[in-house]
Specification:
Elements lengths: L15 E5 L4 H17 L3 E5 L4 H7 L5 E4 L2 E5 L4 H9 L1
Parallel strand pairs: 1-2
Antiparallel strand pairs: 1-3, 3-4
Organism: Streptomyces musisoli
Protein name: Glutaredoxin family protein
Pfam family, one: Glrx-like
Length: about 90
């Protein structure tokens, strides 16, 4: 379908997933950004522990923290607040 006719999803219809692991300072930093942006926009988010999910471990181990937006990889290592905000509102 043409992007011109695609319905934009409201932020509350999106889902942000933060793939992280315990004891990871970059993960803690990423979580603060995700919580702020999602809280401001009313976007639901979830946290996934890479040490408890073999598939996530195999896929993202060298990239954590990883942020997914609607199941698609948005970024890894460092989360830029403005970039995430744009991704959720554009």
């Amino acid at each position: 379908m043409s992007p011109l006719f695609r319905r934009r999803r409201a932020p509350r219809e999106r889902l942000v997933t933060l793939v992280r692991k315990p004891g990871c300072h970059l993960c803690d930093d990423a979580q603060l950004v995700v919580e702020k942006v999602c809280g401001d926009l009313g976007v639901p988010f979830e946290l996934k522990d890479i040490t408890e999910d073999r598939e996530l471990h195999d896929r993202y181990w060298e990239q954590i923290p990883v942020v997914l937006v609607d199941g698609e990889q948005h970024t890894f290592w460092r989360v830029n607040e403005e970039r995430l905000r744009r991704a959720l509102t554009d």
